[in-house]
Specification:
The structure holds two protein chains of two kinds. By secondary structure, chain A is an alpha+beta fold. Chain A is 18% helix and 26% strand. Chain A is built from two helices and seven strands. In chain A, the strands form two sheets. A five-stranded mixed β-sheet of chain A has the order 2-1-7-5-6, with no helix packed on it. In chain A, strands 3-4 form a two-stranded antiparallel sheet. In chain B, the strands form eight sheets. In chain B, strands 9-11-7-20-17-18-19 form a seven-stranded mixed β-sheet, with helices on both faces. A six-stranded mixed β-sheet of chain B has the order 15-23-22-21-16-35, sandwiched between helices. Chain B has a five-stranded mixed β-sheet with strand order 2-1-5-3-4, with helices on both faces. Helices cover 29% and strands 24% of the residues of chain B. In chain B, helix 18 runs parallel beside helix 26 and helix 25 crosses helix 26. In chain B, strand 25 and strand 26 form a beta hairpin. Chain B is of the alpha+beta class. Classes of the chains: A alpha+beta, B alpha+beta.
């Protein structure tokens, strides 16, 4: 199952766990499973329009432009990082 | 009304007669009366040289001369230099040397240079720098500009131009580029920019140059208080002044929603966005607009603005980021709670957002370390310093389509923001691209566009509003001032064991500093096993901050790279060897949790280590050398590009990516490479928001990379369609059609050949117009680092730092147009020198800005800097077909730290606050108390 790296500021919801394993074939499915296992995580990462605009999702260390729709492999690693644009 | 005077003068060789308001400057007469808009306005007080012209052959700033003074005299402007024989040698040299970037200061610089060459045909470099010290340029770093003047002087004298056309120190290796070259036909060459001729002749149209029939002039009414409750706004006197056509305040903005309780029901970020444009009940920074007027001319508009009576109840002001974070600090927003990745604070706070990166166990890492150092640094609020004050012309049409001509880095994001503030359908807002007179991140914001639109709606006429230089500094986003605490632990053999940092950024009056970028890039180029970074976005009573070239990173790099220098001193280790040893490589996990793709960090540091500058002995008293490195993770994101094949075999390229400093050319070069045609046969254009698909703004070093990919893909698509047509013409299978070196052939039949132009000429006969459009959204480009090597000399009596030699080394991936890459490196480097040594906002205790002119806010001049040597390291980016990376940002990041490290070696004192002004240095060295 995919591994999810929990951002440090969200570890209050995972009892301090830095990394958890949940099911899912897309980022959206993983987040659904994460919410089931650790209630409150969805509200922290999503808003009405999907992934919060100030958050990027990275699959296997690479930021994906497809956000919640990104398909992930069985052994993928997901992480969430602040969105960075520039000047 | 004031009686106008009849003026007769000779302008650019022609006798002209015009009516002049006695209050009008020569600059205003040239631009507003004679429609000679090649002469630009930069500061209106004689401190930038942007408006330079010749008056009876003498160089003058036309903003300081009254129009009436030119009666009977002769004026020469940029429009008067070229004639039927062609461009003036200065214009030609500026074109060929890329002695310009945004082009806004260029007319003034060329006019000043002409006055110099008229007086002294064989000037030395030093004489040129002295002469041009009154002409500010924020983009080029002056290097290519000075070279262009030297070359032009040689041309005027009839000598063979001999001055090198690119940055090269006498002991430079000779090429200035290293790494893997691709063997390309167009990529890597240095063609004249497609927008070049317009830039050097004054024909380039910037927003303030736009004039529409019936256009009104607007002026904002601004708060003198940094924090106050608005008790009342009385616009009655202003509204009845003859010539005034519309007056607005925040209520007009909220009335657009058409409901009584619009403000109470709307989302917080919309309230903030609208309040920034026109304050509703509370002003939160000095200069914040509270009302605006539109009138028949700028004088009536100014008079009317002064008649708007506003009563305020002052509130306590907080300007310092640490003070603002205290529990008992005056609150800027009662509805602002700290967001910590979706977790909301339990009470209102000035801390808008907190981000944290954590890797490993920092405390264990410090325990394992042999040396641990902890320091705190501060950096001043500084401005991007673009020379073109933001200007807008808005026309609210009778069909409710709002057409906006403005100076923006992002057509589509500005459109969205204008639509959001005005509660108007996005598709009913059309942004027309203008040339942009420097942005550096600061022109991604919306300021007066909604004001101009609203006034236009009310007056039913187009409205122009342009900021003064003072307004630019008071209102438009500076980069955040900071307070940064950093701790680093290393083993005695030079490995970084752990880092910890707390980054406090001033967001300004509304949240939104780019704290994430600072947190990620601070140590992103090092492989660090244990680290924690906490960054905070904190509101204070200053204008809302905006990105500035590698936003929020230069401040963080100042903290990180000065502490590294201190560590290296304790280790007795070469500071570049230390950086090389600890450099991150492909596969390194950052403190952010991301895993690095292929990067060129080690290659770039090695290039610095091997650069002749680093090994040249530096002799003489009070002189020393410093080094530092800095990182930027270039952005990707959505871009659209379309190609239209013309019947003559040329190609029109259209995109919505704003061209700040040459991207039309660098994108066209990528298309030309694929299409097998000359770059001169590509006609690139930035088009309005109704004519192309979405493009992210030109920010984050993304445009040459991301829009370049769109252009490459569009070119491939165009070629595929051309192959289709060829196959149809020859009645062969498309699989047999080949395209190479501009010629289509069919495998198996050598007689069948058609050139690119021949296929283009037959497009309508083979199925109709050939056109290709592509939208892409690539992930971010790879990160790039810059390494700076700087030699300085300090005058111990005055505290003045003189930069003797500066080398900027940067990984650019494949350099599409090396001149433009060097220009980015040189410009960013000189900005970093200004940030390090001179620049910084100064406020009084009430939050009023004290240095809002270019006399008091001192940008580097040509006299303050030497030629900037560059070394481009080309480690191709595997995420781009030609290996391109973004190059615009990392160049600024190491400068202040490199200069601080050099100064330490002279004084023995570590400077921990920017700017390292003469006064601060004299205090630090004990010369004065």
């Amino acid at each position: 199952m995919p591994r999810v790296v929990i951002p440090p500021l969200m570890r209050d919801l995972t009892a301090g766990q830095a990394c958890v394993t949940v099911a899912g074939r897309t980022v959206r499915e993983v987040l659904d499973c994460l919410e089931t296992a650790f209630p409150g995580t969805r509200e922290r990462l999503l808003d009405k329009e999907g992934l919060r605009s100030d958050i990027w999702v990275a699959v296997d260390g690479e930021i994906t432009p497809s956000g919640l729709l990104t398909e992930i492999a069985e052994n993928s690693e997901l992480s969430f990082v602040p969105a960075i644009e520039g000047g | 009304m004031v009686d106008r005077q009849r003026i007769k003068a000779k302008v650019n060789g022609e006798e002209v007669e015009f009516l002049c308001d006695p209050r009008q400057s020569l600059l205003e007469c040239l631009r507003d009366v004679l429609n000679l808009t090649g002469t630009k306005e930069g500061c209106n007080d004689g401190n930038c040289g942007v408006c330079a012209v010749l008056l009876d052959g003498q160089l003058v700033n036309s903003c300081l001369v009254l129009g009436c003074e030119v009666n009977g005299r002769e004026v020469t402007t940029i429009e008067g230099l070229a004639d039927w024989r062609g461009l003036h040698p200065l214009q030609q040299a500026f074109l060929e040397h890329n002695g310009y970037q945004c082009g806004y200061c260029t007319p003034g610089v060329i006019m000043a240079a002409k006055a110099l060459l008229d007086e002294k045909p064989n000037p030395t470099e030093e004489e040129i720098r002295h002469w041009l010290a009154g002409n500010l340029c924020r983009c080029t770093g002056y290097d290519k500009l000075v070279r262009a003047v030297m070359d032009a002087a040689a041309r005027v004298r009839g000598d063979v131009p001999s001055f090198p056309g690119r940055a090269m120190h006498p002991d430079d290796s000779g090429t200035g580029r290293s790494g893997i070259m691709g063997g390309y036909r167009v990529i890597g060459t240095r063609p004249v920019r497609t927008d070049g001729a317009d830039k050097v002749t004054g024909k380039a149209v910037f927003a303030a140059d736009v004039r529409l029939p019936g256009m009104l002039y607007a002026k904002a009414v601004r708060s003198p208080y940094a924090h106050a409750r608005i008790r009342s706004i009385d616009t009655s006197k202003a509204a009845t002044l003859p010539g005034v056509k519309a007056v607005i305040a925040a209520e007009d903005l909220w009335a657009l929603d058409g409901i009584a309780d619009a403000r109470a029901n709307c989302r917080r970020n919309v309230r903030y966005a609208r309040d920034k444009i026109l304050a509703y009940d509370i002003v939160r920074f000095a200069g914040q607009p509270v009302a605006a007027v539109a009138a028949v001319d700028r004088f009536v508009a100014a008079e009317a603005a002064a008649l708007v009576a506003v009563e305020y109840d002052p509130l306590p002001v907080v300007l310092d980021v640490r003070e603002a974070m205290k529990e008992d600090a005056p609150l800027l927003h009662n509805d602002l709670f700290t967001d910590s990745l979706g977790k909301r604070g339990d009470r209102p706070s000035n801390i808008a957002r907190h981000v944290q990166f954590l890797k490993g166990d920092p405390e264990k890492g410090f325990a394992k370390s042999d040396i641990v150092i902890e320091r705190e640094v501060r950096t001043a609020t500084v401005h991007q310093g673009y020379l073109e004050p933001p200007a807008v012309v808005a026309d609210w049409g009778e069909d409710d389509t709002i057409t906006v001509y403005c100076s923006t880095q992002g057509l589509f994001t500005s459109r969205a923001e204008i639509a959001r503030v005005l509660n108007h359908p996005e598709s009913r807002v059309r942004l027309v691209p203008m040339e942009v007179g420097g942005g550096f991140g600061g022109k991604g914001q919306v300021y007066e566009e909604p004001i101009a639109a609203l006034l236009s709606r009310k007056a039913r006429r187009p409205v122009k509003i342009a900021m003064t230089r003072s307004e630019v500094h008071q209102v438009t986003g500076p980069t955040p001032g900071t307070c940064i605490k950093v701790k680093m632990g290393v083993s005695k053999d030079g490995w970084i064991q752990a880092v910890k940092a707390e980054l406090l950024y001033e967001a300004g009056a509304f949240p939104g500093a780019f704290i994430d970028a600072g947190a990620r890039c601070m140590f992103g180029h090092y492989d660090i096993p244990n680290g924690q970074i906490d960054a905070y976005d904190v509101v204070v009573n200053k204008p809302k901050s905006a990105p500035y070239r590698a936003p929020c990173v230069t401040q963080a790099a100042f903290a990180a790279e000065t502490i590294i220098d201190e560590i290296c001193e304790k280790l007795k280790m070469d500071p570049l060897e230390f950086r090389l040893k600890n450099a991150a490589v492909e596969g390194t996990r950052e403190l952010s949790g991301l895993v690095l793709p292929q990067v060129g960090f080690k290659e770039t540091i090695k290039a610095a280590l091997e650069h002749p500058h680093y090994h040249t002995p530096l002799t003489g008293p009070h002189r020393a050398r410093g080094v530092a490195a800095g990182l930027w993770f270039a952005a990707g994101g959505p871009s659209t590009c379309s190609l239209t094949l013309n019947g003559d075999g040329s190609v029109n390229l259209a995109t919505g990516s704003v061209d700040l400093q040459g991207t039309r050319t660098s994108i066209a070069m990528q298309a030309a490479e694929v299409l097998g045609i000359a770059v001169e046969d590509i006609h690139p254009a930035v088009v309005d928001t109704s004519s192309t698909g979405f493009n992210m703004p030109t920010v984050g070093s993304r445009t040459t990379f991301a829009t370049g990919i769109a252009a490459i893909e569009a070119a491939k698509k165009l070629l595929t369609e051309m192959c289709n047509r060829v196959a149809r013409l020859w009645a062969v299978d498309i699989e047999t059609v080949r395209f190479e070196a501009g010629v289509f052939t069919a495998s198996g039949d050598q007689k069948l050949q058609l050139t690119f132009k021949e296929v283009a000429a037959r497009q309508n006969a083979t199925g109709g117009p050939i056109y290709a459009a592509v939208a892409v959204s690539p992930a971010g480009s790879a990160g790039t680092i810059s390494v700076h090597i700087v030699d300085v000399e300090l005058d111990p009596d005055t505290g003045k730092t003189k930069v003797l030699r500066f080398t900027s080394i940067q990984d650019a991936g494949t350099a599409v147009h090396p001149d433009l890459v060097e220009g980015q490196m040189q410009g960013g480097t000189v900005q970093s020198i200004g940030w390090a040594l001179n620049e910084g906002y100064q406020y009084d205790n009430e939050g009023r800005l004290l240095n809002d002119t270019l006399q008091d806010y001192r940008l580097p001049t040509a006299l303050d800097v030497p030629m900037i040597d560059t070394a481009i390291v080309e480690v191709p980016n595997p995420r781009h077909p030609f290996g391109v990376k973004g190059v615009g940002e990392s160049t600024i990041t190491p400068g202040p730290a490199a200069l601080a490290n050099a100064l330490y070696r002279i004084t023995g004192v570590r400077m921990r606050e920017l700017p390292m002004s003469p006064l601060r240095i004299l205090k630090a060295t004990g010369v004065i108390e």
